[in-house]
Structure formats: structure tokens, C-alpha cells
Specification:
Belongs to the lyase 1 family. Adenylosuccinate lyase subfamily. Residues 14-312 form the Fumarate lyase N-terminal domain. One of its GO terms (molecular function) is lyase activity. InterPro entries: Fumarase/histidase_N, Fumarate_lyase_CS, Fumarate_lyase_fam, Fumarate_lyase_N, L-Aspartase-like, Pur_lyase, PurB_bact, PurB_C. This protein is mostly helical. The protein has helices at residues 21-27, 29-48, 60-71, 75-88, 91-101, 107-111, 122-159, 179-199, 214-219, 225-236, 252-281, 305-327, 338-343, 346-364, 371-379, 386-395, 401-409, 416-424, 430-438, 448-453; strands spanning 164-169, 172-178, 203-204, 240-241, 284-286, 367-369. The protein has three domains: 21-120, Fumarase/aspartase (N-terminal domain) (Fumarase C, Chain B, domain 1), CATH 1.10.275; 141-291 and 300-371, Fumarase/aspartase (Central domain) (Fumarase C, Chain A, domain 2, Up-down Bundle), CATH 1.20.200; 382-440, Ribonucleotide Reductase Protein R1, domain 1 (Orthogonal Bundle), CATH 1.10.40. Helix content is 60%, strand content 5%. The longest helix is centred in the first third of the chain and has 38 residues, at 122-159.
Length: 463
């Protein structure tokens, strides 16, 4: 069978291929090749500026030609590298040979071609490339998409800040809150989670086969290779330098980043399940779209499929991200190859996360609050006022307040009349009786509306 969206084994390249566009050029094999070319070019240019007698500083034209190979890198270029790899059976060496082949029309570059990949091990190129890939994915896709979710939820929180809602702890009726406050809780969690993702330092190394600059010093023993490598990584590539490594950069930062994304996804699984439940209770309706079908046999159904899809894809993402974070920091002695094959799945793991974000945003865009259902639910739960009544009784030192309210309400259907009759028997100031008599489940929401109203999409909530 021919490879197509219908025959693709991964749904990311099949059913959901159209939703993976933002990641495709960053975390695919094409993306890896692109970054390898970038790293090789920047290392080569830096070597020309190092002051070595054998390699004079490149001219502006030479630098322009080299960096043009990066900015104009195409699928055809990537395919040409793959063709070379058929002979070399080594992906990084194929990039080196392809780059040298681009020097044919430049006497300046051709004369210095042996400084391509000079003193480098493959992992000097790979680890920096992976860092650049993750930097771009975080900056261009992950954080902007999370910001959209945080923004959408913040708007929802503010719009529904004062809409009362019966809370449920252990699935049972509990002290009321507001819809907006429950959404604001999610916003606050996501803000902190986003900051954890954004704050992870992306590390890289350029120090040779076992991390000691052995080959570098064999060629230029008096040169400060550590400072040079730091400059290339930090100034030219925009990553953080790691001076202590084996052949590979140990990937601890990757584990930290993937764990941060996993925690974020877990928050969104929690929210997706809650929204699913609120839709089931009728608290939210979903806007319908002409032509859509909810069930092949039950015409009335409008299923919460976006939140179900989000939950499922977050689960897949977290399974892969957890494996990456647990496996990548482990390497036998100075290097084994198990990290290489696993790292090729970074795009798959993050792809499922992005698919989940996309589904969640789609679902949020369909939600409509059902004020009537919320009000009806509250009106059937007068027992939740047992809490404020017994708390006021405690203030005025009435005997056994908790026990008296427990006897009145536990496991029973309580009406407004039952509650108000009980309040009438209390030996408390008349002003307090009047205040309690006026209280309803819908008005007993504490500071919920104020908390929801002050949530800010742009920064984490104060602790």
C-alpha cells in the first residue's frame, strides 16, 4: 500500500495530520536535519573566527552562503541528505557530507571544508539540535497554545464570576461556589504550570567524544576550548552551556521539561473530566453545528467529544513524555544508543499534547452556561445551609450546633421551610436570624465571585 493519511500508522500523520502543521517543521526528521545543518554552520563560522592560522575568518559572502543554507533549507535538501545516508548509514555524517557538497562553487569554503564537523562527535551536533528543536517548539507552539487556553478560561472565569453553582465534594452536595471561581481555579493552576515549562533551561554541550575536549586539544593544545564552546552554544545558538557531560548531554533538562508538560496536561485532564461532568449535569450546554451527528442511533445526543478527545490525547502524551523523562537521563557508561531512538519520538509525544490542547480549545468554544439548570440544582439543596447556620451558632456559643444540624439534615431532603423553621428556634440576635433567613443556596458563595473576577490571564495568581 502507498503511504498516505489513510495508511499512516500514527493518527498524527493520518486522521489528525492537518492539525500538526505548527509542529511538523520543528520536531520531525526534517526539523532535526535543519537544526543539524544550523549547528554545523555556526560551529564552522565560529572556528573561522577563532584565530587559527589554518582557517582565516570567513568573508561576508562566505558567511552569507553558509547561513543561507540554513534559512533556505528545504525538503529537497533533507531528501538529498537522506540519499547520502543510504551510503553512510550514519545520519550526522550524511549532513557533514551534504554541507561539504554545497561548497563546490566557493573556493573559500572548499579550501576550509575539513573544518566542517571539526573535533566534533555526533552528539555535539545532535544534542544542540535537539535543544534548538525544543526551544522552537516551546516558544512557537507550546507556550502560545497554552496562553490561548489560559486566555479562554480567564474570559470564562470573569464572565461567569457571579453565577452560583452547587459544589460537590465526594460527589455529594457541598457548599456552593460560582462557575467562574471553579474556572479560575484551573487558570491559577495552569499559570504556574506554564511558568514551570517556560523556566526550564535548555542545555547543550560541544565537548567531544567523552566530554573532555580530547580531539580538540590534540589539534590546538593551547586553545581555550571550553570558553569557545560556551560562546558558540550561548551566543550563537541561544542555549545554556553544560560543562560536565559524557558523550551525550545527560538530558536531565529534557526530563524536567517533559515532566512540566506532563503536569500541565494532568491539570487539563482534570478540567476535561470536570467539564464532562458539568455537561452531564446540565450546567453547560454545547452549541451545535449544522450537519454534525452525536450518535448513529440516538438523534438527540450532543456528546462532549472534544473534552473526551482532549482527555484521551493528554493521556497518550503523558505516557510518552513520562517514558522520555524516565529513560533519557539513563545512559550506560559514557554512551549507549537507547536515547537516540527514543528522542525521535519527541514530536509524537508533544504532538499528542498539542492535539489535546486543540480539542480542548474547540470544546471551550462550544460551551454555553445553563443558568436555569444551575439555579434548579441549588434550589433543591437547602441542606448546604447547615454549614453557615451551625457556624453562626458556634459564634454565639449555642450548645452542640454541629450535632443539631446533623440531626436535622444528614441524608434528608430539606426545604426552605425546614431551614427557616430551625433558624426561628435559635437563641441568637434577631439581626442574625434575619440575615440567616435571607440566605439561600445561591447566595451562599462566600468570596467566590471576587476571587474569580480578579484572576489575570497574564500572570500567576498570588499564593
Amino acid at each position: 500500500m502507498n503511504l498516505s493519511s489513510l495508511t499512516a500508522l500514527s493518527p498524527l500523520d493520518g486522521r489528525y495530520a492537518s492539525r500538526m502543521g505548527p509542529l511538523r517543521g520543528l520536531l520531525s526528521e526534517f526539523g532535526l536535519m535543519h537544526r543539524r545543518v544550523q549547528v554545523e554552520v555556526e560551529w564552522f563560522i565560529a572556528l573561522s573566527d577563532a584565530g587559527f592560522a589554518e582557517f582565516k575568518p570567513l568573508t561576508g559572502a562566505g558567511r552569507g552562503l553558509l547561513r543561507g543554507l540554513v534559512t533556505r533549507f528545504s525538503e529537497a535538501d533533507a531528501q538529498a541528505i537522506k540519499e547520502i545516508e543510504k551510503t553512510t548509514n550514519h545520519d550526522v555524517k550524511a549532513v557533514e557530507y551534504w554541507l561539504k557538497s554545497r561548497f563546490e562553487n566557493s573556493a573559500e569554503l572548499k579550501a576550509a571544508s575539513e573544518f566542517v564537523h571539526f573535533a566534533c562527535t555526533s552528539e555535539d551536533i545532535n544534542n544542540t539540535s535537539h535543544g534548538l528543536m525544543l526551544k522552537a517548539a516551546r516558544q512557537d507552539v507550546l507556550l502560545p497554545t497554552l496562553d490561548k487556553i489560559i486566555g479562554a478560561l480567564t474570559t470564562l472565569a470573569k464572565d461567569l464570576a457571579d453565577v452560583p453553582m452547587l459544589a460537590r465534594t465526594h460527589g455529594q452536595t457541598a457548599s456552593p461556589t460560582t462557575v467562574g471561581k471553579e474556572v479560575a481555579n484551573v487558570v491559577a493552576r495552569l499559570q504556574h504550570a506554564r511558568e514551570r515549562i517556560a523556566s526550564v533551561k535548555l542545555l547543550a554541550k560541544m565537548n567531544g567524544a567523552v566530554g573532555n575536549y580530547n580531539a580538540h586539544l590534540s589539534a590546538y593544545p593551547d586553545f581555550d576550548w571550553e570558553s569557545f564552546s560556551r560562546k558558540v552554544i550561548e551566543k550563537q545558538l541561544g542555549l545554556e552551556f553544560n560543562p560536565y557531560t559524557i558523550q551525550i548531554e545527560p538530558h536531565d533538562y529534557m526530563a524536567e521539561l517533559f515532566d512540566a508538560v506532563t503536569r500541565t496536561n494532568t491539570i487539563l485532564i482534570d478540567w476535561s473530566r470536570d467539564v464532562w461532568g458539568y455537561i452531564s449535569l446540565g450546567y453547560f450546554k454545547q452549541r451545535t453545528k449544522a450537519g454534525e451527528i452525536g450518535s448513529s442511533t440516538m438523534p438527540h445526543k450532543v456528546n462532549p467529544i472534544d473534552f473526551e478527545n482532549a482527555e484521551g490525547n493528554f493521556g497518550l502524551a503523558n505516557a510518552l513524555l513520562s517514558h522520555l523523562s524516565q529513560k533519557l537521563p539513563i545512559s550506560r557508561w559514557q554512551r549507549d544508543l537507547t536515547d537516540s531512538t527514543v528522542l525521535r519520538n519527541m514530536g509524537v509525544a508533544i504532538g499528542y499534547a498539542v492535539l489535546g490542547y486543540d480539542s480542548l480549545l474547540k470544546g471551550l468554544g462550544k460551551l454555553e452556561v445553563n443558568r436555569e439548570a444551575l439555579a434548579a440544582d441549588l434550589d433543591s439543596a437547602w441542606e448546604v445551609l447547615a454549614e453557615p447556620i451551625q457556624t453562626v451558632m458556634r459564634r454565639y456559643k449555642l450548645p452542640n450546633p454541629y450535632e443539631r444540624l446533623k440531626e436535622l439534615t444528614r441524608g434528608k431532603a430539606i426545604t426552605r421551610e425546614d431551614i427557616q423553621a430551625f433558624i426561628g428556634t435559635l437563641e441568637i440576635p434577631e439581626s442574625e436570624k434575619t440575615r440567616l433567613m435571607a440566605m439561600t443556596p445561591g447566595s451562599y458563595t462566600g468570596q467566590a465571585a471576587a476571587l474569580a473576577g480578579r484572576i489575570d490571564a497574564g500572570k500567576p495568581a498570588s499564593n
